[in-house]
Amino acid sequence: MKDSATLVGQSTELLDAIERASLAAALNRSVLVIGERGTGKEMVAERLHRLSPRWDEPFIAMNCAAMSENLIDAELFGYEAGAFTGATSARRGRFEEADGGTLFLDEVGTLSSAAQERLLRVVEYGELTRLGANRPLTVDVRIVGATNEDLPALVEKGHFRADLLDRLSFEVITLPPLRARSDDIMELANHFARRMSVELGWPDFPGFSREVRQQLRAYEWPGNVRELKNVVERALYRWGDPATPVDALQFDPFDSPWRPKRSIVMAGAEAAKAPPVEPAVAAVAAAEQRAAVSDLRAAVAEYERDILVRTLESCRYNQRAAAEALAVTYDQLRHCLRRHGLHRAAAAS
After folding, report:
1. Is 35 within 8 Å of 80 (Cβ atoms)?
2. How far, in Å, are 10, 140, 162, 193, 218 from residue 127 at the CA level?
3. 108, 119, 111, 162: which is closest to 141 by C-alpha?
């Protein structure tokens, strides 16, 4: 078994999950692997495959969440030439690629209703039909699904098919988060550190200082084993001294005094989620605003003055910065300030 599929740790919680996976491996049944991000779900799926009678057949992995709804069917079931625009030649899907072996469907809870329906037929009858084809194909595939979702809860809400869940959950292996495996933290940290030392060309791993060991044990590890691996490897390469124990950690690589405070993406998402204004309310508000404007020139001037005041305040009365923010020249800004009687206040600030 390749090293990336090695599950490191001796905690009872982890060993129980590994033993359950080892027992289920020999059976030709679907298995669900449940766990938080970074707990090693794909490693357990590989273990199920390597210990099964299918060990010398293909192991095909697919992240369902990474595929758009339009691509899911084509990726899973394949397509014939001319099935859709751009399909110039036929292509096998993941099921055909995994024929005789194991198909690992990560984030299976994100599958659309249509994809769930077609997946159910393959699980139940071993038959699939490529997009654009008329004849079904027979495949022999063992399915291992993985998710960090509560699938029974999704079934209750109507987001996941109950009959598909029944067929996927012959055995369910729930992986413990790293915070429940506190005894494994240092074993994992040392494992990743030794591998990183080799990658850096160090003669040996110098170990961690006492303070760093305490920090590693005390941290909650919301990203689990994957986060621990990143933190340890980042610490070694930044430390850069193979002769002394590593004495510095950074859990959050984004932590910086210059970290951006405003997110255009989040602002756009929040605006999209904002409840729409009722047309009648909007019409009344617009009518009230029009009625309140009795002098257009005065209203425009007041609006311009308000913009100047707010821009000066946000730029801490730096007139050149304010001119740049308003996309005008410095002389144009000075002219506007004089027109609104703001030039003395701006100069005094």
Report:
1. no
2. 41, 9, 20, 47, 50
3. 119
Q: Which amino acid is at 14?
A: L
DSSP element (H, E) containing 237: helix 224-239
Closest of 124, 156, 160, 162 to residue 143, by C-alpha: 124
pLDDT digits (tens, 9 = 90+) for 84-100: 777 788 889 999 999 99
Q: What is the pLDDT of residues 210-229, one digit of tens each?
A: 999 999 999 999 999 999 99
| Distance, CA of 279 to CA of 289 (rounded, Å) | 15
Q: What is the pLDDT of residue 269?
A: 60
Helix axes 69-77, 113-125, angle to 10 degrees: 20
Q: Quickly state the pLDDT bin for 297 (edges 50, 70, 90).
A: confident
What are the φ and ψ backbone dihedral angles of 147, each rounded to 5 degrees? Answer: -165, 160
Q: How many helices (H) and strands (E) does the chain have?
A: 16, 7
Output the six-digit token pair for 182.
Answer: 């506190």
Rg (CA), the chain: 30
Amino acid at 328: V
Rounded average pLDDT over 293-321: 80
Residues 151/165, Cβ–Cβ less than 8 Å: yes
What is the C-alpha separation between 120 and 161, in angstroms, rounded?
Answer: 9
How far is CA 16 from each of CA 138, 179, 226, rounded to the nearest angstrom?
36, 16, 20
Average pLDDT for 128-151:
93
Beta bridge partners of 95: none
Q: What is the pLDDT of residues 135-146, one digit of tens each?
A: 999 999 999 999
- What angle in degrees, to the nearest 10, is found between the helix axes of 210-218 and 185-200? 120
Euclidean distance between CA atoms 7 and 1, whole angstroms: 11
Report CA 238 to chain centroid distance, whole Å: 26
